[in-house]
Write a structure and sequence with these properties.
The structure holds two protein chains of two kinds. Chain A is α/β, with parallel strands linked by helices. Chain A has helices at about 10-20, 95-105, 130-145, 160-170, 195-200, 205-210, 210-220, 220-235, 240-250, 255-265, 280-285, 335, 340-355; strands at about 1-5, 60-65, 65-75, 80-85, 105-110, 120, 150-155, 175-180, 295-300, 320-325. Chain A has one domain (about 1-355): Alpha/Beta hydrolase fold, catalytic domain (Rossmann fold). In chain A, about 55% of the residues are buried. Mean pLDDT of chain A is about 85; it is low at about 1-50. Chain B has a single domain (about 35-340), classed as 3-Layer(aba) Sandwich (Rossmann fold), CATH 3.40.50.1820. Classes of the chains: A alpha/beta, B alpha/beta.
Chain lengths: ~350, ~350
Amino acid sequence: MTDSVTPTRMDDRMDFVRRGLLRGAVAGAGIAGLGLALGGSVAFAKGIGFPALALGRLKNVDAGVLNIAYCEAGPADGPAVVLLHGFPYDIEAYAEVAPLLASAGCRVIVPYLRGFGPTRFLNAGTLRSGEFAAFGADLLALLDALALPRAVLAGYDWGGKAASAVAALWPERCAGLVSGNGYAFTEPSAALVPALPESEIPLWWQFYFQTERGRAGYTKYRREMNRFFWKQWSPTWRFDDATFARTAGSFDNPDHVDVSIHSFRHRFGAVKGDPAYAEIDRRLASLPAIPVRTVTLDGSDDSAHGPTDGSAQAAKFTGPRTHRVIPGAGHNLPQEAPGAFADAVLELVRADRRTR
Amino acid sequence: MSDPNKLPRRSFLEKAAIGVVTSQFAAGVPAFAQTRAASRPLKRLEPLKSIEAGVLNIGYAELGPANGAPILLLHGWPYDIHTYAEVAPILASQGYRVIVPYVRGYGTTQFISSETPRNGQQAVLAVDIIALMDALKIQQATVGGCDWGARTACILAALWPERVKALVSVSGYLIGNRESGKAPLPPKAELQWWYQYYFATERGRAGYEKNRHDFSKLIWQIASPRWAFDDATFDRSAAALENPDHVAVVIHNYRWRLGLAEGESKYDDLENRLAKAPVITVPTITFEGDANGAPHPEASAYAGKFSGRYEHRVVSGGIGHNLPQEAPQAFAAAVAELARL
């Protein structure tokens, strides 16, 4: 089940990115070939891309309880791909992946999750829920709002929960799933079961967030904490200050702390979810099978979720499923190994095209 | 150090936080251990006695002549009276009457009534010691403490200065303030308090209940990263954590600090006085080890809280958090020095 992928070297592009030469380039413009490259790895189209997605053209759309801000790249009639970031990251995680997919002819949508960046709640009275069901509902609402009947859904961390929720509960909307860290859902009671003492230390912040001091600490030190998480969970990723800074502004979203704290308290059963998502939550808690074609990815250096051979979760994937460990990547898979991540997405886009 | 990412070297705890420490933990400290355990049996503090005092029947070790000048030695968490395994005999041999009680929730100390709340708030631990002194008819004692025991010793000295001849306190002035306990610290500092946040959750209570022995050993290792204690030494103390009230008292202690559990209202007046961070007037020596892996204040932060004769001593040589057990000569010498005044 496990095969390894050599990360595509991004050094040349990264150099351009770092020097800001590509900043502001219009996403998806000037694509060399609009047809999907059907063989081999992703070709890099020179001069294309949005190195800082947030600085590119952002769109927004009312979707469910949110006004979702998102970046769109690639041809409007290309096969749709939605890329979903995790916590504490933002759409910059796809700064490299999105142009790769756009240049391969995909219509790429990269939304900010609730509580991140310019995405906003429409109603002040809506619970700032961070439950996984909410992320799934938001994604479904986005597909509806953009009139996307189907899309390849790719995500990791919270974004992986969102993508997996739609893949499991509305598989007709999902043309393929890329999920960081495999099957996204666990028994709700599992969060209440203690691990061995030394294994609890890496989770200290989740316990911290259960307390009001933890909420105050996250509010005050969200950048410091999130940088701490980046380093902890991706110990071999050498990101620079500018890279972190491009994402860190997303944590200033007025709902960010509420959504984040609610999320970690909800998984400990310490707060109630939004009744609007009770049915989705109930179905996710039953650990539904994922019937769509799936690629699961683990980073070999992910210390938030150690790499696996994927076999333990195999039964949850009732469609064709491939599992890969990406050497040298940590938790922030698409930003650390954009080539491998984009390859996985393209594989599903091609497979979907073949079967339809 | 506001940016944890710029630290030159990761501490044990920081390594543990990224999950790379398990094998090191397994292969680490105990390597030193087994030979010593096999070659000499560990002495226990004895004789153990017990006496009804307040809401407790307090178990304690008593050493030295009954008419000696009294010295009280107070242990912390997750330790027991054997923090003073070597200190107590040293002081007893110098003619002092040395009393080393088990804190509520530890060892042979028992609650008299099953109805008494298993309260761990800071004031009540001091009230227990005043009750013990009353029961033993000790009007005044020199008091030494470490960790929770140092906090209790500070409280005794601050609120009952007539009962405390002198104070020896590891890590200085430790009287807590629940209001300031609400204020978050930078992330790296909060990581040091990881177990306090763990205990705030039901998972943490369950985890401590289930893995008490290994959990406490991990705390020992983090708190004293250069102390090569052996299994026999740890197990001698860990037995005291099997007390039936232990988990309840410990969890309440840490939750109370964060404002997540209420204390008993009858101690409100004492807590209100403690919340003002009262000055300690009795002669005091504070200690710090040069390798204390537990969260602790800088000595400069508390020097001003001691208005009487005062001295701060740093013990070098890899001395960690359980200072009286790791550096018994230095600790005993300080106690004797003040007891002689």
